[in-house]
Structures are given as structure tokens and as C-alpha cells.
Amino acid sequence: MRLVQLTGVYLHGQHNTAAQLQPVTILRGPNEAGKSTLLGLAELAINGNSGKNWPVLGVSPSYKWSVSAIFDDGTSITRGMDRRGKHWATFNGRPENLSVVQSQIRDSIGEAATWSVSEFVNLTPAKRLEFLESKVLTGIGWTAERLEAELADVHKYLVELEAYENAPPMEKARECLPHLIRHVHDCWREYNSTAKDLAKAVKRDEKEAEAEQRPPGTVASWEARRAELDEEISRLRVEVGKDEAAAPERTRLLQDIQAAQEQLENVKDLSVLEEDLQRATHDEATHEQAATSAKQRMDDLTAAANGLASRKQELAGKADEAAGVYNETASAWSAYQAAQDVVEEVLPLLTRADRMLVDLAAGRDDVDSWTSDLDEWKERYSSSRGHDLKASLEQQRQTWNGLEAQVQAASRQHAAKAVELRQAADAANVAERNLEHYRHKRVAAEARLQAAKENQGEREAEARAGLEQLTDRLTGLGETSSAHAVLLEEAQTERKEVQTALDAANDYQARRADRSVRLREKEEAEDARTACRQTEQALQATLGKMLSEMTAPLEEAVNRIVTVALGCTFRVHVEDGGAYFLLDDVPLDTASTSQRVVTMMALRCAVVQQLGGWRALLVDDLNTLDNDRRTAFLRAMVAEVEGGYLDNFIGALVADEWSAPDGVHTIELGAPDASAP
Question: pTM surpassing 0.85?
Fold first, then answer.
């Protein structure tokens, strides 16, 4: 499908613009001659009115306009706008709704786009990759089995890195691989940061290790020495404890020494012994008098106790007599109470007897006898008799109780006297023993005085020897205690020094362990970083391999052009999120401007060929190329058309002295018509 004719009315100041096109056509003319307008006619006819192609309509398109494109297979497209501002379109001469026409054009022809040379030259690697992915690599990809096979060597490590989590399915290899690369790169950055931090820490550790002095000894040797000192300190503490336990003995020795010194002085001076004898004699007399007084008091208390015992016995006898009288009275009272029951029966008889006395006046003797008996009964069982018995019983009871109280009081007094008697006896015994003691002291004092008078010199030597012996014993105890205390203090001081050295050795060992840990962590981080880098490189290589296979048709199409136009070989290299174009394995960015322009136009031509539909390359500003490059490039375009790879090539350039090669149709355009409405 080749475009053979373009016509435009009232476009960009031109009343009529028309061109009969050949497969390879060059539009030549000065600036503002309408070259860009003609290039834009195809885009306007095929794509419709849009902001991108609006400039071809002029600055203020307030008038009607129309554009038409005719292809060699008879396909025609016409678009326009009437004076009321309404757009219209026809496809193959049939008026249709604009959206319907656009759909028909897209299905049969595709899209048209005019590319400026600068757009080819100034693309960044990321933009180039974006261009390839949007125009070339769409719909092209590997199967999941193919991707799994390519990732078999790094699959295990990717699982360890959890790279497959939230990743696109492997069926979408073109999306999955970049995700895996980003994830592995993030892991690499994390490991890289960790490795750098640890490397700094290890470097600091090395500097510290160089400046640090190794402490003397080892942890094991210092621990052994500390154990020895702990054992020695325990032993010395036991000895010091024994010394402290011997303190009372030292006190007693001091007292004995003082007594020995006094004895020595006494041996020298007999007046002391004489004073001791006088004192002992006086003490003996005093205690003898005290013993006599204690014995006399004991005798007095014995007599008083005996009197109280007799009084107690006497009162006890009286109490027994009172108890007998009380018992007799109680018996009478009991008989009286028993007779009261009889009185209840006798009183009626007494009443009858009183009446019989009147009737028995004749028998006087009997009456007197009866009267006497009656009086006796009345007397015996009268209430006054009972009252007297009861009063007597109460009196006897009180008397008995009083005597019992006196007996108890006498018993208490006797017991108290017995206690006093025992105390007095004890005091008398103590006084007797004291008297005996002081008697012996007096006898001993007399003997000492007598002996002192007899062998004063010998006793003085003996007392002096005893004093020296006691002094030596005291000195030995004092020196032993002091030596143990000094040794204990020295051992404790050394123990502190050993502990300080042990702490320093432990700190040194701990720092070395920390450094070893950091060094190991650094090595592990570096290994992980290296593994991530290698994995990322493997993924990049896989992605590059995939893209290389995908871009192989593109490279083939570009090489058909650049081989003819430049005599070079073109290759696409995808890495680090960008597409890098190489000419003879040299980056395109380092090539000359003309080489870059030709390569990018060839790339665009290859893209157009792969998109299908109307395969056309519309290029403006061919003046960027020098004459030789321009001629070689156009020859390559002629070859593409003749080879059936390209339908149309339409280029524009400002008029110069250059001559087009064979197969290139040139359309000369003049200056714009100022009289156009």
C-alpha cells in the first residue's frame, strides 16, 4: 500500500497544496515553502485533527479546509471542516461518522507519524528502551518453561531472597524479569550498604587493634592466679580468725603480767605482805562477827518458828473442839428439824389435852402429870427452842471459821518464818564459808610473809622469770596476729590487681571476638553482595538474551540500511533499565551526528516495517545529514522500497546544491503565496 497523492486546500496559508508522490520522495524548498505542511498532510488525513498536527492548519483556521490522501490500491481518505466549524470525513468516497472512519483507517492503514531528526538523536537510553517496548517488543515474550530453564542456575538463590513474592507470573517473562532484577538489585543495595558499614567498622577495628596494646598474660593464667589467691585469702582469714579468737588469751596474759609485776614489786617490798596480813586479819574478824550475827539471827528465827508451831498446834486443837461443838449443835438442829414433822401431829393432841384438862377436874393427879408432860412437849417443840438451836449453830460455825482462819494465818506466819529461817541459815553458811576463806587468806598471808622473810631473793628471781615468760608469750601472740593480718592485706591487694588484669584480658578477648564477628559478618555481607551482583548480572544477561532474541528482527532490518548507508553493523544492548545502540560494538552516543541520525532513522524505518499497515517513514529536516550521508541513506531507502520492506519514504530538506540519487523523486516547492486568503 503506497501513498501516491496528497491534496490540501486552505492549509497553512496555502490555497491549494497538491503532490504526486513516488515511493521515495524528497520535498525541497526554502523555509516556509510548505514542506512540513505536505509531510503533515498524510498525518492529518490518516490520524485526524489533533494537537500534534494542528500547526499544519495554520495559526487561526477560521476558514474551511480539506485534505485528501490516495493510495495505489484505490484507498482514499478525505477530511475537512466546513465554514460552520463542523468536521467531516469520508473513507473510499463514503461519508461516515468520524469515529467509524478512524476505526476503518486504523484497521487498514494504521497510524502515520512525522519524525524530526532531533527526536532520533536526543533519546536517552531509558527512552530508547521505552520506545522499543512500546513499538517493537509488544506482544513478544518467552514461555514460562523457557524462563524457568534460563533461571535454573539462580532459582535457589532467588527463592532465598524471596524475589518471587509479589512478582508477575513467569508466563509474563518481559514483566517478571525486570521485577526480579529490581528485587535483587534492592537486595544488593541493602547488602552493599551493610557491607560498607561493616567494612568501615572493620577498618576502625584494625586501627584500634594496631593502636591497642595486648594486656599481659591470658585469661586462663589470670583466672588460675585468682583461684590461688582466693584459696590463700581463705586460709589467711581462718588464721586471722584464730588470732582474733586468741584475743581473750592476750587480755588474760596482760592481766597475768600486771599481777606478776605487782607480785615482783611485792617480793621486793615486804610491807605489802604485812599490809595483806593486816587486811586479811581485819577481814577475818569482820567476817567472824558477821558469822556470829548470822548464827544469832538463825537461832532467833528458830525460836520464833517453834513458837509459831506451838501456837499453830494450839489453835488447831481449839478448832477441832469448835468443830466438835458445831457438829453436836448441827446434830441437835437436825433432830429439831426432824421433830418439826412430829409437831404437826402433836399439836392437835395438845389442843385436845387442853380441853381434857377441863373435863378431868376429878382426877387431879393425872391432870398434873398430863400437864407436866404437856408443858415438856411444848417446851421441847416450841419455836423459840428451834430459834436458839439455830442461833447456837450459827455461833459455833462462826467460831469454827474464826479458828480456821487463825490456823491458816499461823501457818502462813510459820511458813514465812521458815523461809526467813532458811535464808538466815544460808546466810550463816555463807558467812561461815567466808570466815573460813578469810581465815585461810590470813593464814596464807602469814605464811607468805614468813616465807618472804626467809627466801626473799629466791622468790624475787622466780617472780621475775614468770614475768618474762608471760611477756614472751604475749609478744609471740602479737607478732603472729600482725603477720597474718599483713599477709591477708597483701593477698587482698594482689587479688584486686589480678582481677583488674583479668577484666582487661576479658575485655581484650571480647573486643577481639566482636571484631571477628564483624569481620565474619562483613565477609558474609560481601559474599551476599557478590551473589546478588552475580544473580543480577545473570538476570540481566537473561533479559539481554531475551531482548536480543526479540530485537533480532529489528537489528536485521536496521542493518540492511546502516550497512548500505554507513558501512557499519548495528546491535541493540539492553542493560540497567536502558537500551544501548551500538555501531560496530561502539556506543552510538559516541558516534558522529550523521551516524546517529542515519541509525535512528533506520531504526524508525525498521519499527514501521514491523507495525504493518502503511509502512511509511516521514522525516523532516534532512539537512542535518551531509550530502554523502544523505545520498547513501536515500539509496538504502530505495533498496528498502524495492525489496518490499517499505511502502513510502517522504523526506524534507531546504534547497541546496545536492543532487538526489537514482530512484528518488524530488518535488521542488517555492515561496508561500502571500495573496492566499
Answer: no
